[in-house]
Amino acid sequence: MAEENRSAPQADFDMLSHAFRIAADEIQKLPNLPSIAGGERLLVEIQQMRNESREQFARLEERNRERFARLEERNRERFAHLEERITTSHQSLLTVLSTSEINSAARVQNTHLSGPSDRLSPFLNPLTGAAIPTFPTTPADIERMAEHDVDGILLQLGLQAAPAGTILPMKKRRLRTHIGLRSQVERSA
Question: pTM above the 0.70 mark?
Answer without folding.
Answer: no
